Amino acid sequence: MRSQLIFAFATTTLAFPTPFPQSTGADSCPSKALTPQTWIDLKIDDFLAGAAKNYTKTTTNNVQALAASFGAPNFFCGLDSFCNAGQPCLPIELPAWYAAIAIQNWNNYMNNMNTAIGFASSILSLKLPEIVQDVFPDPQDNITPLKNMVTIFGSVLGFVPFTGAVATAAGTLQKGLAFVNGRLKPPAATDRFLAWSDVASSMADIVRDYQAVVSTSMTAILNAPVDDADNGINGIISGGNFLGVSQNFTQTDLQNIVIDSITRNALGLALQAQKMFVTRFSNVNTCNDEDQNMLCTKNDGSSTFTQWALLRREGDANAESQIDTSKVLMDKYGMTKLEFLKGPTDCFDTNGKKQLTNPFDTGLPTDAKAACVFNLLVCDIDSSRPSSGKGIVNFCKEDQGLDV
Questions:
Q1: Where does the signal sequence lie (predicted)?
Q2: Is residue 206 a contact partner of residue 146, using CB atoms and an 8 Å limit?
Q3: pLDDT tens profile 17-40
């Protein structure tokens, strides 16, 4: 049953009402291209400000009441409902028709978001157990904050376009993320943790929370007076960002965009949960990087080297080389030593020596190799200084405050 559910998600297509809005209508009613520029040129925001003063306000579904004032009394939006603006002047006259198209597209977008939450859950439910099997053989729960998965969800949802095809979503990503993180206000995952041993349960929690957010947001917008400062539909569609032609897309379309970044970010989280860390030895006189968990570079203008190592506490104080894990990162996931060893230290250096900097609260970048996507704790050891006599783990823990 579980595999059937995942397969169902994978083959689902986000659906839109038909017919799609076109820039044609009655012969006597020529219309312009469905673009934000048309919205600006025709001053639709000013038109809507005037319409807000003339429609009959209601206690519920003011969006429908506004549409009724345009001549479309059967224009009902909502979750699992697809309000249809029809064609220009059939029945809504210009310029009100452009506003109705934007409302229709907003309604489509919210329904698509509701479905895409399931897409995101399916993508993660397929990927995370594989990562657990590969690099987290003894998974522990109550380690990784669930908010990390909410961030990954936001990465997927940010690519759901207001209009158009997902293949052109790169230019609308920031708009989508701004909407997801502003208007929809992602659910807080405070004091909850990812269940690495039962990923499905964590994904179910996020799906339930996120879909509740979508439902609550949509209801608030539908019911608010159209010119309400917080939830009015006039503000939602202002500027014409929702004016366009919607197109179908599938889970695969979204997955192809985000899967590499999701995978590398989750790999880092899985290693963090096991308290693996990168040690950077500076000013080393001799260096050997034959082992998969070691990297060496010669320092410019010096006879010394810098050496990186992927380590983990073994026993009371011993640092164990993570050779097998490094092999998996390279052989299966295509990562280089520079990426999984030097990459975390570059993130550490760039962000003022702050551990585990996460600049992706609003969503991961599409570039899986971007700084900090894969991240681990960093311990700096200057080999030119007198030894403290402590083992690596104790030094990193006691002198640098690392939780290792």
A1: 1-15
A2: yes
A3: 443 444 445 567 999 999 999 999
**pLDDT score, position 125:** 93
Q: Which two tokens stand for residue 369?
A: 């190799």
The pLDDT assigned to 173 comes to: 56
Confidence of residue 151 (pLDDT cuts 50, 70, 90): confident
Whole-number Å distance between alpha carbons of 136 and 140? 9
CA distance 32 to 367: 37
Which residues are CB-neighbours of 54 under 8 A, at least 6 positions away? 69
| pTM score of the predicted model | 0.88
Residue extents of the structural domains in the chain: 2-259, 275-398
CB of 357 within 8 A of CB of 259? no
| Phi, psi of 133, rounded to the nearest 5 degrees | -65, -35
Beta pairing class for 377-382 and 277-284: parallel
Which residue spans within 250-321 are E strands per DSSP? 277-284, 294-298, 305-314, 318-321
- Among 337, 311, 338, smallest CA distance to 404 is for 311
